[in-house]
Design a protein that fits this description.
3-stranded antiparallel sheet, 297 residues, 12 helices
Amino acid sequence: MQRIALLLVFVFTAAGFMAAPVPAQDLPNLETFISSLPGQSDVPSPRPPFSPRANYLAAAASLSGEKLFQFLHAATVPSMPGTGIDYLKAKKYMFSIADNTGCDGGPGVTAFYSQVCVRGASESGADYKEQGDANEDGIRDTGGMNAEHTWPQGFFNKAAPMKSDLHHIFPTFITVNGRRGSEPFGVVSQAVYGTSSGSKLGAEGFEPCDAVKGDVARAILYFVVRYYSHNIRDGMDYKDFWVSRVPMFLEWDRRDPPDAAEKRRNELIERRQNNRNPFVDDTTLAARVGLKIFQSH
C-alpha cells in the first residue's frame, strides 16, 4: 500500500504569510513524516478492531448495493470519546498534523474553499490569518481559520461522535465558512459571493471550488454511510440537502479523484480515530453502492 505524506512539520512560531502549497509529488513517506514529529504519542498507530485497509477492501470486493452500504457502515465505526474536549483535540490535530500539508518548503495549512496556504505549525486555527485579501472575496480574515463541518453541526445538534469526526471536517477561513453556513452544496449559476479559487454562493447553495469538489463529495458520502442511523436531519430539508443532490456528489467524486494529500489525510485521521473514509481508499465503491441506495438512506 502506497502511503503518502507531507513535508516534515517542525514546531516553531507560525509565520503569518501566504505561500504556495507543496506539490503532491514532493510529499515524503508517511512513516518518515510521523517519526519526525516532536510528540509521536499524538499520532498513534491504528488500533483494533478496525481491519487493515487491504483486508476490509478485499472483504467488500464482491459486494454491491445495499449489502455494500451496510458493510461500509459497519466498517467505519470510529473510536473516539466524542466529548467537547475531544472536539478541541480534533481541531488541534487537524491544523497541526492532518491538514498541515506545507507551503513553500515549510509547514502550513491550505484553506479548503479558498486554496490559499498560510504558513505555520500551530494547533490553533486563529494563528492561520489571511494576509490581505488573499482569496479575493473582498474581506480580510484577520481571525484566521476555523473548522468547517461539511454536514452542518446544527443538523445533528452538535452531537458526538459526528462533531469531532475529521473525515467530514476541513480548515477554512472564517468568512467563507460563515457564508457557506448550512447551505446545501450545489452548482451555482449566479454568485452573490465568491473567492478567486472558484468557490461561490448563490440561489442553488454553496459550490466548492473544483480543486475540492471530490473531497466534499467523499466527505458527504462517508457521513451518510457512517451516520445515517443517527439523528442527522434535525431542522433540515433532507431531500433538498442530500437526496436530490446525490447525482451531483457521485459526479464530483468521479471527476475529482483523491490526490496525494487526501490519501495522506485519510491515513493520519485513521491514526487518531481508528477508521477510514472508504471512498478515498477505493474509487469504485460509490458507483457500486449506487444512486438509488444512497438516496434511500
